[in-house]
Amino acid sequence: MRNTCSILFNRKFTQLPHLAGTEQNLRYAEQIKKEWMEFGLDSVEMVPYDVLLSYPNKSEPNYISIIDQLGNEVFNTSLAEPVPEGYENVSNIVPPYSAFSAKGQPEGDLVYVNYGRTEDFFQLQREMNINVTGKIVIVRYGKIFRGNKVKNAMLAGAKGIIMFSDPADYWAADVQPYPDGWNLPGGGAQRGNVLNLNGAGDPLTPGYPAKGVYVHVLDGVGLPKIPVHPIGFHDAVNLLKNMGGQIPPNNWKGALNVSYRIGPGFTDDFKSQKVRMNIHTDNQVTRIYNVIGRIRGALEPDRYVILGGHRDAWVFGGIDPMSGAAVVHETVRSAGKLLSKGWRPRRTIIFASWDAEEFGLVGSTEWAEDNTKLLQERAVAYINADSAIEGMYTLRVDCTPSLHTLVYDLTKQIASPEDGEEGVSLYESWHKRDNWTNDRDAPRISKLGSGSDFEAYFIRLGIAAGRARYTKNKKTERYSSYPVYHSVYETFEIVEKFYDPSFKRLQAVAQVRGGLIFLLADSQLLPLDVNQYADSLRKYAQSITQLAQKHPEEMKMYEVSFGEFMLVTLWSIPLQVRIMNDQLMYLERAFIDPLGLPGRPFYRHVIFAPSSHNKYAGESFPGIYDALFDIQNSADPEKAWEEVKRQISIAAFTVHAAAMTLTPPA
């Protein structure tokens, strides 16, 4: 795979803003379709859906005010970010906003709630005795998905929430702000959706594709009921500097020159001042377009291996998503070259350029809903291709356990992109920099959570899935995500100047993603490892059992046992290749519960799901985990422990049923 093509693609497709639903994003879709056809794919189509998106009101901007007792505005937050050099004449840069925020102009006292996590609100209410009902809360970005922060604020009774990027979470040490470095300038702010969809896709058509079938839900699924707005840390200082109330715990303090007092409200000298939110964001049904390309398999055309990544960006998308979209484009080009030389994969390969990922994984979920029956019957694996780089230290892989062995074998064949590591494999470099602790001598592979387009394929449909990208050193670099995430400063130049000047890291990620696709599509026996899955299940079972055993008296009182659950295992017996392949392919499907998780019907994977408290994080045995969460404070302990027992039974039954799918056919 050649660097130059990825560089040219990245440069070409990051010059203009291309928000989902805009004319420019449609133009990029048409350009991608044209080039994929020129590369030689068997077919390429644009697939439209009419979905709910969300945009700022151009005539009524969103902002936050401090108002005096007469209602006069004494301070207003910025209406836009300072535009980076070289982009001053670019139009259609959307100002920072929280997509799908409720409209409104609530006024009230401000309360600071750290990161807005479940545990932060618990601490505020249980230890500090502060009630946020009728208040406006302000929280730091980071640690968890922003939509979970909004949900927590709503549950606590807040009437609005403001989010800001604190330098403690969005600044790397000894690095200058952009353009002199890759840190976030004080005027930069993180855009993003604030939905709690739990896998529903388009909020108006949960469970069904948004294309002509009238299944609209009147209120929409997962939409916040309160106004939400993001600001930069320069503006945050002005909101926080006069806060009154309690001094916070040390772990609630960020890096700004303020006290981080919790409130409610301001100090005595400013007691009469309140905060007002002015939010006018509009939600509207808008047409989006996925681009779908195919190479028909030579021997098993009814088996699909999918490589998908999104195209839409909040602004320029220099990292998210175009560093990943470039990888898809380059993989298509490489496949086209092979086709021209007479090669054809054993199985069908599908390439996807998804739209509206930033608005809740909408394009990929609608296509999954549109093709559910086909995918359940035919899909072998889904490899995700979102941002290819989020740091400069080592490889990061999240995937289902059956893909672990394939990932390790593949990375042993790829060269490390790091200077001074000539002759060293990517596997060796990764192993040295991020080794699995305690239980195995191998590079760390994480569980899949959510936050990108694999969600519907893995967690709803039970298709083996994985993702790979370059990441930071988690031991020394404490910032939450790469600092300029979802800001106007995510440009091509930030990648070219700082993250990957040689584009070798992007090339390594392209080789991992592309290699997984080609091996899954072309190997006679599917390279899915049942034994690795079995080993991982044992570890997950031990972990969730240990969590429950923190409550030994309650387990005894309510007769909770993990005995049957701990005995279940998987095994594999040699069979004819096609039968064996089908059993391997359908193993992931066997972990799907059609009823879904409690309160989350579109999250159907019994072994893996996003955490209920952080969409980005993956949880194993999520039904049991959620039932155990904060159980010591349950108002009805007997009912709570009965739910734990029910979830243990569901998990034990599902794993046993999955094991049965690996036995020889009768």
UniProtKB/TrEMBL annotation:
Domain Peptidase M28: 290-419
GO-annotated biological processes: proteolysis
InterPro entries in the record: PA_dom_sf (IPR046450), PA_domain (IPR003137), Peptidase_M28 (IPR007484), Peptidase_M28B (IPR039373), TFR-like_dimer_dom (IPR007365), TFR-like_dimer_dom_sf (IPR036757)
Domain of life the protein comes from: Eukaryota
Annotated Gene Ontology cellular component terms: plasma membrane
Gene Ontology MF terms in the entry: dipeptidase activity; metal ion binding; metallocarboxypeptidase activity
Catalytic activity, reaction form: Release of an unsubstituted, C-terminal glutamyl residue, typically from Ac-Asp-Glu or folylpoly-gamma-glutamates
Membrane topology recorded in Swiss-Prot or TrEMBL: Single-pass type II membrane protein
Keywords: Calcium, Carboxypeptidase, Cell membrane, Dipeptidase, Glycoprotein, Hydrolase, Membrane, Metal-binding, Metalloprotease, Multifunctional enzyme, Phosphoprotein, Protease, Signal-anchor, Transmembrane, Transmembrane helix, Zinc
Subcellular localization: Cell membrane
EC assignment: 3.4.17.21
Cofactor: Zn(2+)
Similarity-based family: Belongs to the peptidase M28 family. M28B subfamily.
Name this polypeptide is given: Glutamate carboxypeptidase 2
Organism of this sequence: Dicentrarchus labrax
Encoding gene (name): naalad2
